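## retry 2 of 3
previous attempt timed out at serialization; input unchanged, resubmitting
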Amino acid sequence: MKQLFLTFFLWVATACTLSSRDFEVHGPQGGIAIKVSLPEHFNPETDRCPMVVLMHGIFASKDFTPMPAIAKALAREGIASVRFDFNGHGKSEGKMQDMTVEKEIADAMAVYDYVKSLPYVSSVGFLGHSQGGVIASMTAGRLAAQGREVPSRMVLIAPGAVIKEACQGGKFFNARFDPADPPEFIRCWGFMKLGREYLLSTQKLDIFGTAEAYPGKVRILHGTKDSIVPMWCSERYREIYPDRSELITVEGENHTITRHLGKVTDLVVEFFKTAE
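## retry succeeded, writing output
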């Protein structure tokens, strides 16, 4: 909860700069703010290395735990990363109220295409936290269904597939609404707006059906003290990737990854380091 309030103030502090920013990547709502982290002493003109695309959760940003720590840890082991703000989040253009899962998938596709165009990138992995885990898994599945090259491997941290049931049940965090006829927007905690399009379209998502097309290896991490995303979400992902995934529960960890950040980060780095 505390981190969500901090994110809100980050938006306020940076909003005045949005219109003047130069963006290298664009999505449905405009420019996407990105941050590339390279290994120390890495020369992008002569060297090559793997890269991981980091996708944050709803109401978060690329500069929000656990993304910066993961980026730094990957860089120490010779792995680059790109983290970015989804539309309507952080320093990216667009409005939160206009955000949908499909638009976030389009953002992820745009960032993936950008990364694939970089000459120093030898392979690409995906990592998603919370709703970002849903986006990562569905984007990977879409790429596979389109016959395109897919990420080498993927990490899902507390993947928030519960968003579908939340919207179907008319309760998203502390906001309640009629799922058959939601209002123009709802307010979560009084200031985070989710629009009608999100509330309706999320009810119809085929999250697992889309995600299961991804053929690569998957590591799923979930804290035992997560009070936001239930464990069944990670267990369901484990089921759809039966021969190529593992579910690791992190004892005592919460949803925002603030109790055992080092352990979670180590598990992420270990997985990408052993990529074939």
